[in-house]
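Subject: sequence -> structure tokens, single chain

Hey, anyone have a minute? Need the predicted structure for the following. Not urgent.
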Amino acid sequence: MAKTAGSNEASEPQTSASAAPVSYEAALAELEALVGRMEGGALSLEDSLDAYRRGATLVAFCQQQLEKVEQQVRVLDGESLKPLPVELVDNIGDA
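Reply:
Had a minute. Here:
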């Protein structure tokens, strides 16, 4: 019976863990919390595996969000991202 109770407990986090993050910031915060729990060493092997899977999903979500933003920046900048001229960088540092 303890196994059944443990299975139910493991099923509940998976259900909520499978939900898509609402934003990049929320995904990053959840990922940081997961890493903290995993580094704490108190998770069971099964919980560690679940946390790893969720972390991989969150990392993929964050990468997709960053790629979307990069693409939008390229569109706004006319596909030609350029470094700032040295003179402009020097002037900014003097301000």
